[in-house]
Specification:
The complex is a heterodimer.
Chain A: H1 11-29, H2 42-47, H3 51-65, E1 66-67, E2 70-71, H4 78-93, H5 96-113
Helix pairs in contact in A: 4-5
Chain B: H1 5-8, H2 11-20, H3 24-40, H4 45-55, H5 58-69, H6 74-84, H7 86-99, H8 104-112, H9 116-125, H10 133-165, H11 176-189, H12 193-208, H13 216-235
Classes of the chains: A mainly alpha, B mainly alpha.
Chain lengths: ~120, ~240
């Protein structure tokens, strides 16, 4: 387990990485692992529609609106403007790459230049 | 499989590689950024290379990094990775009839290489699964060509990103590009009102429950969002639950 940034490689992290590789295989092959024809229960199939966006949101939102474990109280934070710009660009152009590029073009000057 | 000379000799193998080309710039940029983000998040170069080579799933890698570095328990990291990958579970349902003529190991090896891009390009090209062995082999050759090109593009860009990351000071905060990438994918999944509701519930729950140990706020937020969406859906059967994941 990592307690501070370090250049050392640790075994626990490698075990988790191998586990994530297994997750990749299982999720990408999920419905053709078995030779038998089978179906998920209806509620689970419906749940699949919402879990991916929920998972992303659960990871992303705290990374944008919190620092050091508490909700930020200032609007002078580069991440807020970058995320807003990114969302706006996405719904304008429907392009993930442009979202990243323009979001960073907003983020970097505010973060490095203004120290937000 | 890429090691089958018979598949590579098929014209459709080259065609598959060619069909990937329009996506190359986007995939390369995303791979580069993921490589930089892995090292900037505090992973060692060896860990970052191992993650790129083994996990081969950008969004799951980006979601897992902060959790690994925060010392979350393995099952939470794996659960978060699986949830981010759930869109592939939906893809696999669609891909099943195209692959069932293969042996199980061949299916797993093929499935491992099915990314967002290859899935979209392959199913756009072949609307129905092949019915004769010749057709099935052609489709397999095309998918193998797509997968090979996608893998090469992603991996080389990831390695360049990992190599360059040490030249870039961490305080620039380039790792935030990883969050923007996840945000972009999140927006691309927002294809119905209920999905937007799920995203909003998950975001608020994740912040509200942030103090929970072991990054359990992520698990709790996903559960709360899915339950909310299913409850609202059952009340409003007319709500358009919308699109494939």
């Amino acid at each position: 387990m990592k307690t501070m940034p370090t250049d050392a490689t640790d075994l626990w992290t490698l075990v988790v990485i191998v586990g994530l590789a297994v997750i990749t295989v299982v999720s990408r092959s999920f419905f053709f692992i078995s030779n038998k024809d089978w179906h998920l229960p209806h509620w689970a199939e419906r749940g699949l529609q919402y879990a991916p966006i929920a998972a992303l949101s659960a990871v992303v939102v705290p990374e944008v609106v919190m620092s050091h474990g508490v909700l930020i109280t200032t609007w002078q934070d580069a991440r807020l403007f970058a995320a807003a710009a990114g969302i706006a660009v996405f719904f304008w152009q429907r392009d993930v790459l442009l979202t990243i590029v323009l979001g960073m073009l907003v983020y970097l000057p505010l973060h490095i230049g203004c120290g937000w | 499989m890429i090691w089958s000379r018979q598949l590579r000799a098929q014209p459709l193998f080259r065609e598959g590689m060619h069909d990937f080309l329009p996506q190359a710039l986007g995939v390369a940029a995303w791979g580069l950024m993921t490589g930089v983000a892995m090292v900037n998040s505090g992973m060692s170069v060896f860990e970052a290379v191992a993650m790129a080579l083994l996990v081969y799933a950008g969004s799951a890698q980006l979601a897992a990094m902060p959790l690994i570095m925060a010392g979350a328990p393995a099952w939470v990291v794996l659960a978060a990775g699986f949830c981010v990958n759930l869109r592939f579970v939906v893809f696999s349902l669609h891909m099943r009839p195209y692959l069932m003529h293969l042996s199980r190991w061949q299916r797993l090896a093929t499935g491992y290489f099915v990314t967002d891009n290859t899935y979209v390009l392959f199913t756009r090209r072949f609307h129905t699964p092949g019915t004769t062995p010749a057709e099935q082999q052609k489709q397999q050759a095309h998918l193998t060509g797509l997968s090979a090109a996608n893998w090469l593009c992603w991996m080389s860009a990831s390695m360049v990103g990992i190599a360059l990351a040490n030249l870039i000071p961490t305080r620039w905060g380039l790792g935030f590009a990883g969050i923007l990438c996840l945000l972009g994918i999140q927006c691309s999944l927002a294809s119905s009102r209920l999905r937007i509701v799920a995203a909003a519930v998950a975001g608020m729950a994740s912040v509200a429950a942030y103090a929970l140990p072991l990054k359990l706020n992520i698990v709790l937020a996903i559960a709360a969002a899915v339950i909310c969406a299913l409850v609202v859906e059952s009340f409003k059967s007319d709500a358009s639950a919308g699109g494939r994941a």
